[in-house]
Amino acid sequence: MKQYPSFSKGLNGCYIILMLMAFGCNSNNAGLQAQVDNLSHQTQKSYKPGLGEFMLGIQVHHAKLWFAGKNQNWKLATFELGEIQESVDDIKLYCTDRPEIKSLPMLYPALDSLTQAVKLKSLKQFQTAFIGLTKTCNSCHETTHHEFNVIKIPDTPPFSNQDFKAK
Ligand code: HEC
């Protein structure tokens, strides 16, 4: 009987410790939540390139690819093809809010044919595959109601400060 009060005192002590722990936990959670809110706010505000910006990049690589291939500069052509592929991957990652990207896979067979032509170092196959790629750009622009963005084989190199001939 004598032990009972001291046992309950011990229990009270336990409660206090538990409450302190719970309080500590809660304030920690609140701090973490504030950090999460702050981070997600920052992410929402951070700059993400839009589809049009990726397309501008692709436009440049499309033109450079043509002059690389025409000059049978297969190393540069491989590089430019890789850049187009990277832009396509980035579009898939960053432009999920654009329903048009459903049509992106139509580009894959055209890019595969070009990769094949560049691997074989065949100018003839390259030219055919490049026409195929350019047609696909326009097919997608038509499908996505951007038919006024007409892509063609370039007449002149896009930049005068780059040499497209193989070293
Ligand atoms: C998924 C379908 C699709 C494919 C494939 C595609 N485009 Fe586009 N393109 C679009 C859409 C949609 C826009 C409009 C983007 C916007 O709203 O800014 C666009 C816009 C453009 C623009 C205009 C950008 C500007 O601001 O002036 C260019 C240039 C362009 N594309 C080039 C290309 C080239 C070159 C290819 C092929 C290598 C290609 N596109 C393939 C859908 C596509």
Automatic annotation (TrEMBL):
<dbReference type="InterPro" id="IPR010980">
    <property type="entry name" value="Cyt_c/b562"/>
</dbReference>
<dbReference type="GO" id="GO:0009055">
    <property type="term" value="F:electron transfer activity"/>
</dbReference>
<feature type="signal peptide">
    <location>
        <begin position="1"/>
        <end position="30"/>
    </location>
</feature>
<protein>
    <recommendedName>
        <fullName>Cytochrome C</fullName>
    </recommendedName>
</protein>
<dbReference type="GO" id="GO:0022900">
    <property type="term" value="P:electron transport chain"/>
</dbReference>
<keyword id="KW-0732">Signal</keyword>
<dbReference type="GO" id="GO:0005506">
    <property type="term" value="F:iron ion binding"/>
</dbReference>
<dbReference type="GO" id="GO:0020037">
    <property type="term" value="F:heme binding"/>
</dbReference>
